[in-house]
Fold this sequence. Notes:
By secondary structure, the protein is of the alpha+beta class. It is 49% helix and 20% strand. The radius of gyration is 17 Å and the shape is globular.
Amino acid sequence: MEEQEESLSKCADRSYLMPPPLNSSHIREITITPLDLGFVVRVGCQTVAFTDKQALISAITKYLNNPEETEKAYYNDHFGKRNQK
């Protein structure tokens, strides 16, 4: 058991497991889950819902073409509004 915990702690300490900084052009992992009335999309640690397939395709294309700017816009739209309340 101790050996397993030590192995997990060594793994958790590796910096490559942390997401890259926002100013990176690194594309985060994308998971698309289809639902009856749309899609749930997870990009890195953020989750977004889409009801329209074309809107999903447009958003994914925009993200893949410029992940840094897309993330900045998302964070400003979603988290900036929370801070203004």
